[in-house]
Structure formats: C-alpha cells, structure tokens
Amino acid sequence: MSDAPVLISIEGLSKAYRRGAQQIPVLLDIALQVRAGDFVALMGPSGSGKSTLLNLIAGIDQPTSGRIVIGGVDIATLSEGQLADWRAAHVGFIFQFYNLMPVLTALENVELPLLLTGLSARQRRAHAEAALAMVRLQDRMDHYPNELSGGQQQRVAIARALVSDPSLIVADEPTGDLDRTTGAEVLDLLEQLNRELGKTIVMVTHDPKAAARARRLIHLEKGVLVPDEAATALNERPCSS
After folding, report:
1. pLDDT per residue as tens digits for the range 202-222
2. CATH of the domain at 207
C-alpha cells in the first residue's frame, strides 16, 4: 500500500458554517493523504467534524478554504455543475439509512446512477445485474425495498455505489442501522471490495469494531486531526457518534 499512488491529497482544509452574523468553525487546517486502494475509517465524538470531512471529500459540500485534490483534480475549485458530473463519474455513496427509492425495485435503484451516463438501457441493466450479483442479491433484483431486510437493503445500496465503477467509495455509518451480525456481513463485503477489487474506501463510523476492519484509522477532535500516536490512546476509550 505504501507504494500506491496518492488518490486524495488535502491541504489547509477548513470549513465554517454561518449562523446569522457568526461563523461556526467545523474543520481547522486539515492536512491528509489517502493512497489508492486504502480503507480509511474516520472516528471522533459528535461534533468533531468527521461527517463534514467525508462530505467534502465526496464533493457534496465545498470548503471555506484549502485544497482537496482527488485523482489530480482540485474539487474545491469546481462549480456545482462540475461537481455533480465529477461525483457521478468518480464517487460511490453508502449511507446509514440506505436512501433507496421505495417505488423502485432493487435493480432499478442500482441503475439510478447510470441514468447520468451515455449507456443504453440494455447496458445499464447489465451493469446493475452484475453489481447485484457482486453483493449476492441476484435473486432479489425484482424486489422492492420494503420486501428486503435491512442488511439486504444496505447491500443494494453498496451495489448502487459500485455500479459506475467509481475510484472512491464513501460510507457514512454504513452499519449504524443494522444489528451486529448483519453489520458484520456488510463490513465483510466492504473488506472484500477493498481487498479484491482495490476500491478506495473512506468510512465514517462511531463503532470501534467497524473501524478495526479498516487498514487505517483517523481520529478527529473538535475539527482537528489527532496525531497517530494520540489516536492510538484514543482507541482505548469509547467514542460516541
């Protein structure tokens, strides 16, 4: 992994939100590098800025200052339209509450990101079927979300994240709404995607057992990255979401 190219390079990254006339700082002068093929877990107490950092890396939000270079592109300089195109081409999203469309089948939900591409309907279906087979749900492709268990819905969400073959997968508390056994199955799948397909994964979690599945653990405290030696000590205490 140490000789893999750097996929994400963050320098001087800060984020503040405006509340009336007041600026509320969330992230302060973040510097971080993530290599291609890494599996990173972001941990920290509630309000530490971990979800904000994930959203910035994913191009969902834009920084107040600083650089976020992903695959050679400084996404902090992109317009909203450019960011939307960049996300569609390069990022797969996995959320805590699945974000599936209830009126669409599993297959149709997985196809959704491909509607922004130039693929034909036949090609989109073939890609979606392949993604569902990868998460072992090929026998559930015509089922609606309410006909699936929580774990199956999350696997559909993972298939949707994979279907466009993104260079980066971002996961926000992907096991937070699942029981321990089902959550472990989802983490097994993420590990497999990282190990066998070389997918780069950045995951926010409050669960130390989930974080232990990652190759690298990063802590945030009050909007600041905790140095590795301090993070080791923090691992020994519980961390709330």
Report:
1. 999 988 999 999 999 999 999
2. 3.40.50.300
CB 234 within 8 A of CB 208: no
Of 49, 50, 43, which Cα lies nearest the Cα of 236?
Answer: 43
Task: Tell whether 72 is covered by a domain.
Answer: no
Q: How far apart are CA 102 and CA 147, in angstroms?
A: 10
C-alpha dihedral (73, 76, 77, 80), degrees to nearest 10: 110
The tokens for 69 are: 């270079």
Average pLDDT of the segment spanning 4-15: 95
How many structural domains compose the chain? 1
Cα–Cα distances in Å, from 204 out to 51, 101, 199, 218?
7, 23, 16, 10
User: Does any domain span residue 27?
Assistant: no
* Under 8 Å between Cβ of 135 and 106: no
Give the pLDDT band (50/70/90) at residue 42: very high
